[in-house]
Amino acid sequence: MTGIEPIAVTMGEPAGIGGETTLKAWLGRTDTNLPPFFVIDDPIRLTETAHSQGWTVPLAEISDPGEAAAAFDSALPVLPLHLGMTVRPGHPDPALVGMVVRSIETGVDLCKTGKARGIVTNPINKHVMRQGGFAFPGHTEFLASLLKLEQSEVMMLACPDLKVVPVTIHVSLSEAISSLTEDKIVETAKTAVTALIKDFGIASPRLAVAGLNPHAGEDGDMGREEIDIIIPAINRLRTMGIDARGPKPSDTLFHRQARSTYDAVLCMYHDQALIPLKTLGFDCGVNITLGLPIVRTSPDHGTAFDLAGTGRASEQSLVSALRMADEIARHRAA
Is the four-CA dihedral 275, 193, 110, 159 of positive or negative sign? Predict the structure, then answer.
């Protein structure tokens, strides 16, 4: 890559807010200093969306990502993906899942061939995707499959005030607890630390490790997972030279003073990570898949069917995802 390749943005759920936020992000490109990007989407859908809100967004249909940078200042570059049917905002149709998948696959292929510097995935709705035959819990697992990764996928959520990495992701709480192992904690932590160095330029990352139980188990009185699983994992990480600290009670881990003592938090389950992240940065949170050979980020929100078609959905998270993809690509190039 030359370092000036654009970033690919996927369509996401067509009946959700992804089209609107993409259009709004392009409209604010100068104010937010956005890197050039193109969207893999249906130009007819985007045109109808813009017209419904009274937005003037000229589109430039491209056949190759190399055309995007020259067009970006004056038009939103679109790599066409024709849906072949009308989309009703807020009314998803599982028949379109195949096209949603194709948009993601195209973006990944363009990253693999060096034609895009990274991929930003607009939100999908997991329930609708399953109805349409999608066999993966979410983007993170699908990307790992597309890239034929042997290791488990690792997800980071980031906003200006916090970075969190859940050890278990899209599973029930009972399954998260039963599947938690020393090896899984160690491998997730190693991937997180590598990313903090490679993708964020942090030379010596400090990793806080959350406990699973209230008060981090309180010496076994409130659960033994800390003693039997988490502490042995932390000890192994320290022998590898990783600055791992904990286990820390999660109820005292996310206030301002505590956040100054670490660069990221390793959390044991999904909500332990996402509740503080979304509390601190709901409008600007970014989902990042760590350990991939390509750069992937995503807005940290859903399809918001209740807002679709209103024009009120905030584009801030998408803007943050685009800028973070650009930042990570620059760190990797350096």
Answer: positive
- Regarding pTM above 0.70, the answer is yes
Find out whether 161 and 124 touch, Cβ atoms under 8 Å. Answer: no
| 8 A C-beta contact, residue 291 and residue 112 | no
Residues 14-19: what's their mean pLDDT?
96
d(CA 298, CA 287): 5
Asked whether residue 276 falls in the same domain as residue 308, the answer is: no
Distance CA 318, CA 283 (A): 9
SS3 115: coil
Verify that 114 and 7 share a domain, yes or no.
Answer: yes
Q: Could you report the per-residue pLDDT of 118-141, keeping only the tens digit for each? A: 999 999 999 999 999 999 888 888
278: containing domain: 154-284
How far is C-alpha 100 from the chain's CA centre? 16
* DSSP bridge partners of 242: none
Residues 42 and 172 reside in one and the same domain: no
Strand ranges across the sheet with 162-166:
59-61, 76-80, 37-41, 7-10, 118-120, 296-299, 286-290, 154-159, 162-166, 264-267, 206-210, 243-248
Is the alpha carbon torsion for 225, 229, 230, 231 positive or negative?
positive
